[in-house]
Amino acid sequence: MFTFSSEQDSVSRRCVWVNGPVIVGAGPSGLAVGACLREQGVPFVVIERSDCIASLWQKRTYDRLKLHLPKKFCQLPKFPFPNHFPEYPTKRQFIEYLELYAKHFDINPQFNECVQSAKYDETCGVWRVKTSSPNGFEVEYISQWLVVATGENAERVVPEIEGLKEFGGEVIHACDYKSGKNYKGKKVVVVGCGNSGMEVSLDLSNHGAQPSIVCRSSVHVLPREICGKSTFELAMLMMKWLPLWLVDKILLILAWFILGNIENYGLKRPSIGPLELKNKHGKTPVLDIGALEKIRSGKVKVVPGIKKFSCGTVELVTGEKLEIDSVVLATGYCSNVPYWLQESEFFSNNGFPKAQIPNNWKGKSGLYAIGFTRKGLAGASADAINIAQDIGKVYKEDLKQKKQKVPTHRRCISTF
């Protein structure tokens, strides 16, 4: 990596040539592709807008969070979890694992650099990635390859709900929720009945709050384990021999025996099976870890959609009004790619690749995407291996033929 500056503004702006790819994002996806590139002998630069790796996990998750899948389905390439870690590692343990991963593969991101724009220069055949830091410093990275590793959950989604601004009480997104210890005795509405909404409701109830969870649409709830075996692992095993529709039917029958009919508690199941729904629409089924028992006992109340908020109250679509103290928006996240990537052929307006799996990791002109498969860490790991192998072939061929072109400048500041 070579660094240059301009005559006029050498303090606040510089230009960096990167011999390998620029990776945007230092979450699990960015670390995974960095590790695989390291194994290929390909240099790279990782850009991260926060001051740490895996900022979503470190700064935007609740305290009680654990991995919902067994650790063997969540480990990144080339480096398994430590043997002493439990089957479902805690938030702190997963962060520790990622820190060990980055150290093992000598991945040192450029922290506190937020990408403002990334654009392919047709004339020069390179990507130009412009970043800025909180102190006003600007950097332009120039590279033959760009790896988008910001993933599916880069920005919080905050829905427009009538009267929410006039509510008067505390309103937070789930990414700002840490624990229910400060909500004891309070009436809290949790908007969203996915895995986060269910787990936040469970945590609130465990801390003596009175949560109501808004279930506006249908949702699949499955036990996390069936007969001591991970439901996800069981599903993957069955799919080796059975068609998806049959696996879905078996899972729903088993869930009915273990959990009962969830529609008795105000939770309506979708018309299509959990695996089909995940594949078609990316909607993950809820893996129950205790919230359903709280719902059965009445300690967590299920309510339908919200019509509007007013001062200290919420009116439901049924006309019922509830007096509440706080609101937690478990309304999910979205991609932020459209805000900075100036490209429209590979990525769609929603920030996801247009191509279908398994071809959604590679675009044109050295553009790659990782972590957009809606298949979690296992999907990101598969992307990382594919991307590193693809870039590695070209990089090694360039070295072999001695055709790698490195810009020169009489004012070379430093070389990395």
TrEMBL record:
UniProt superkingdom: Eukaryota
UniProt GO molecular function: flavin adenine dinucleotide binding; indole-3-pyruvate monooxygenase activity; N,N-dimethylaniline monooxygenase activity; NADP binding
InterPro entries attached to this UniProt entry: Auxin_biosynth/cation_transpt, FAD/NAD-bd_sf, Flavin_mOase-like
Catalyzed reactions per annotation: indole-3-pyruvate + NADPH + O2 + H(+) = (indol-3-yl)acetate + CO2 + NADP(+) + H2O
Listed transmembrane segments: 241-259
GO biological process: auxin biosynthetic process
Pfam families listed in its UniProt record: FMO-like
Pathway: Plant hormone metabolism; auxin biosynthesis
Record keywords, A-Z: Auxin biosynthesis, FAD, Flavoprotein, Membrane, Monooxygenase, NADP, Oxidoreductase, Transmembrane, Transmembrane helix
EC code: 1.-.-.-
Required co-factors: FAD
Family: Belongs to the FMO family.
Protein name stated in the entry: Flavin-containing monooxygenase
Organism: Solanum lycopersicum
